[in-house]
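call fold(seq) -> tokens
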Amino acid sequence: MDSLMPNTVFPTSKCPPLWANGPDVQGHHTFPNRPANGGPKKVTQSPVTTGSSVIAMKYDGGVVIAADTLGSYGSMARFPDLKRILKVNDTTVLGAGGDYADFQFISEIIKQKQIDEDCKDDGFNLKPKALHCWLTRVLYNRRSKFDPLWNVIIVAGMQDDEPYLGFCNLQGTAFTDTVMATGMGVDLCLPVMRNAMEKKGGLLSYDEARATLLQCVRLAYLRDCRSWPKYHLAKIDATGSSIEGPLMIDSDWEFAKTVKGYE
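ret:
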């Protein structure tokens, strides 16, 4: 019967606070300089502003890589002047498709890594194989936390006087090859580049590789609604690395004059 007696010590069902204006034993403790718990951890579930295809291929003496400048906000061509190719140093360049914010985040880390290398001034530099290996670990680690960096990255460069081309995606899947593409470029551009190499019987010259990549950029613009006619083109060889652009593809709309009956 005692359990039916009213509680005279604590007249309400709520316990008193542990200290003045503080929480009770059932409440959340709020500590200074520490944000309150805002609920479950939230991570990126889908990309927002995205870039489309990155296209790259080895040629006789180097590597060439191209990417358009469009950042798509869903299906809207929202940002037409983004740069999706990053020059790391004289031997290494990378291009990225996917979420542009994640690319900006990882670009800042890579730039700081290069600054640290420059400050050491020990004769060593960040090489493409090392950067590619590091990216595979970073992307796989973030994927394992269910908080991926939503990017597909191509690392291009020269190491030991040999051209190097490495691929890594948001799951941490990585490989190397002679020709590479991301996004819709896998379906549209890889056959074009492979066909050009089969006709040559080996690696192309720089002029041939450049012409092939321009053909791929134009094809991607005509067939992929997330592509753009403006692009950047990077070249890496024994003399160093450089990025051209933004450039425009050659377009010919003369045939439009002959299209009739749709007014």
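The chain has a mean pLDDT of 85.
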